[in-house]
Amino acid sequence: MNISSLRHHLPTQGTEKGREIAASMLRGDTLNRGPFKEAALEQLSTVPEPWLVRLKSEGIAYVALGYGEDLSQTNLIINYSPERLRKEAGTAKEIAAAVRAEVDAELKKERESETDPLRLGMLEHGRTDLLKDKLAAQLEEAGLGFAVRVTRDLLPLAFLEQENGVEDSGYDEFLEPQETERGLFREILLDLNGPEVVSQKGSEDGPILPNDSILDPADDLILVPYAVFGSKRLSPVSRESYKKINGMYMDQHHGGHFWPGRLIMLDDEATLHPSPILSTHSVVLHETGHAIDYIAEGIPELNHRETIDAMFEADMKRQASGEQRVLTPRATDNAREYFAEAVEAYLTNPTDHDTYKADNHHVLLKQRNPELYEYVDRLMKLPALTATSGPENQGTDPEPANSQ
Ligand SMILES: [Zn+2]
Question: Could you tell me the distance, in angstroms and rounded to a whole number, from the CA of residue 182 to the centre of ligand 1?
Answer without folding.
Answer: 43
